[in-house]
Amino acid sequence: MTDSRGTVSRRLFVSGMFAALGTVPAAAAGASAGPSARPPGGGAAWESGRRVLRAAPATVSLGGRTVSTWAYDGLLPGPTIRATAGGTVRTRLVNDLPAPTTVHWHGIRIAADMDGAPGLSQRPTQPGGTFDYVFTVPDPGTYFYHSHVGMQSDRGLYGPLIVEDPAEPLEYDQEFTVVLDDWQDGVNGTPDDTLRTLNTTPHDDTLSSHVLGGTSGHVRYPYYLVNGRTADEPTTFVSRPRVRARFRVINAAADTAFRVALGGHRLTITHTDGFPVKPVTVDTVVIGMGERYDFVVTLEAGAFPLMAMAEGKAGRAFAVVRTTPGARTPSPDGAVPELQRRQLAYQDLQARRRDQLRPPSRTVTVTLGWRQGTAGSEWPLNGHLSDDPLRLRVDRGETIRIVMHNDTHMWHPMHLHGHTFQVRTTERGGPRKDTVNVMPYKRISIDVHADNPGEWMFHCHNLYHQEQGMMGLLGYGKPPKRRHVMSH
Ligand code: C2O
Ligand code: CU
Predict the structure, then answer these.
(1) How far is the CA of 411 from the centre of ligand 2 (A)?
(2) What's the domain range around 428?
(3) Going by CA atoms, what residue is nearest to atom 1 of ligand 1?
């Protein structure tokens, strides 16, 4: 492959999944491999031909432990979809699940009818049915896809979507995709069972603030995964000393934020939620559900722990970055001092000049609340639950500011479909993102440029909160007449 300066790119396309399976092509560990180093199923082929994505019950190995779940193409995570910015992705969803489903392309500025929002952009695809997703990917970056029906994405129904930049300005030799997840399906019943338990357990807000203070979620999971594998038989990312490696980290978990560090290294953060930032070097970064971070590291010689602590929970996801074949494998229980050092804050992140949005024409406030309902916890937005959703109206072309005020003791990683907003860490600055953590009792402002007409979901990416009502809409022009648009 050729870069913008016409020289042969040294970048390699080795996903962690392939590295974990030990199928890295021999050339891939070197710095001179050409286009043949792309993994099978990656690259331009996905754009030019239509691929099938089959959602079905599957038996998958988490490494040491085998579970029954629902997955795409029998893989955990689902297959990596690679495309080039400006290109078209064509995917036929085949639903072999015993339940209706959709695929949502998280973070993509997509045409509204391809957004996979059940009851809003499409009817869910019934068992035995198919749906053709055909869409252009305007912006390069690290994205993912997942089911948007019920608790399905807390099973195995998620996978990476990587949009390459044909004029990639970042210099690196090799890249790895790192997908984080919290796992219970097939171990402790299903995510639907857990949701039912949450809904029948009386919730004491006062008590919880002590017990759960500072946590991202309510659910204690038996496993936390990197690329579908537990800490006991971890994913290994294979490279060489002095290689400049780009890590694309995706938090696909339903209820867990992760604190990520790579033992013996500092992380130069280059992107969040697909969009570039002015590079900033830190030791650790906390990644909420639905968020992505890319960082670049010049690798030392040895074998290093890639640690992702389940924030506020006892548990960790763990992988190994190995650049020396003989080096001793780090223990998943070992200390990683970087986790305690300099942590990335949103205030550290600054969008490129060309990604800065104009000042907003108006401001709306959205209060993120909690209340005890008859069927368990409810998480309203300005008092509205998803069955009668908050409707934010915008005019095409305008920029509005949404001030989110978290009036609860829980984290809410708020996500807007179809747009990449600008988080206002200062009046004029801040990163472009599509998912932002609103911490307990804190406020955060985002500016949204209304450049992609449609009715868009605006919701908490804690899947339990979402299913307990924490979803509104942002739309253009008059609201549609239909009510209860989101009942599935
Ligand atoms: Cu990643 Cu509405 O979701
Ligand atoms: Cu939430």
Answers:
(1) 6
(2) 353-476
(3) 106
